[in-house]
Automatic annotation (TrEMBL):
InterPro entries: Methyltransf_25, SAM-dependent_MTases_sf. This is SAM-dependent methyltransferase. Residues 49-142 form the Methyltransferase domain. Keywords: Methyltransferase, S-adenosyl-L-methionine, Transferase. It comes from Plantactinospora soyae. Gene3D superfamilies: S-adenosyl-L-methionine-dependent methyltransferases (2.20.25.110), Vaccinia Virus protein VP39 (3.40.50.150).
Length: 261
């Protein structure tokens, strides 16, 4: 097998080393920001929160430990396997390739989150459908907090660069290729993990798109959300031209046509 046919699904090979790879992520600061925004909307401990693209459960376990009722969905069976080991049988986890119908009763969640640039994996044609899927899970007044990598990060930081690192029992080489006509970056990740007879070599290809503010806001509005705010990287600061990560807070509106008694 050669070329793309030899590549594994994203986050299959990475699942086993993902938590160590991403250990520097400020998950606790992200959770502080999210829970503060939820509290401002009257959504406190005990509320039901859906972790969209939950990965290995790093955010879900922190929310659970703060008293929230958490459920998670992710497209990667391998990542969900790690999450199940971490979270145990009492947290509901499902494999879902978004956008798709969710395996939950509609409007059952008080809030949803989608962290660590998972939204950037959506092609532009799928963005509105994604928002509509999340909106269907939220009760009116529920919040959706998510982040996106900025255009600056995809163009200037990732760009068309390559880098790598050796972690002892695993190593990786990361190659980037930015396509300005599509507004997307392709990542080719080569992972070497220790095996009985040396190292095993696996490759994954990832693609991320960037979205401007109007695109996000309009897609969200058409899906039943209003924008509460967009800030820089889980802070209260306005995004700057060189902001790497933007954090959005949306509120689920009352569905049109619902009768009030």
């Amino acid at each position: 097998m050669t070329g793309l046919a030899a590549l594994g699904e994203p986050y299959t090979a990475l699942a086993g080393v993902y938590d160590r790879w991403t250990d520097p992520n400020p998950y606790d600061r992200w959770v502080d920001f999210i829970t503060a925004r939820l509290a401002q909307a009257g959504i406190g401990s005990g509320a039901r929160v859906l972790d969209v693209c939950c990965g290995t459960g790093s955010m879900a376990v922190r929310l659970r430990d703060r008293g929230y009722q958490v459920a998670g969905i992710d497209g990667s069976a391998a990542m969900l396997g790690v999450a199940r080991d971490r979270l145990g049988p009492l947290v509901e986890l499902h494999q879902v390739i978004l956008p798709a119908e969710l395996p939950f009763t509609p409007a059952v969640f008080d809030a949803a989150i989608c962290c660590f640039d998972s939204v950037n994996y959506l092609p532009p044609s799928a963005l509105q459908g994604f928002f509509a899927t999340v909106a269907s899970a939220l009760r009116p007044g529920g919040l959706f907090v998510f982040d996106v990598n900025s255009r600056y990060k995809l163009e200037e930081v990732f760009g068309s660069s390559q880098y790598g690192d050796d972690q002892g029992d695993f190593a990786y080489v990361w190659r980037n290729r930015y396509d300005p006509t599509r507004g997307a970056t392709d990542f080719l990740i080569t992972l070497f993990t220790r095996a009985d007879d040396g190292f095993r070599r696996e490759e994954e290809q990832h693609r991320q798109w960037w979205f401007d503010h109007d695109t996000i806001r309009n897609s969200a509005n058409r899906s039943g959300f209003t924008t509460v705010g967009a800030t820089a990287d889980y802070t209260s600061s306005e995004p700057e031209p060189d902001t790497l990560r933007e954090t959005w807070v949306l509120r689920r509106e009352e569905p049109a046509g619902r009768n009030h008694h």
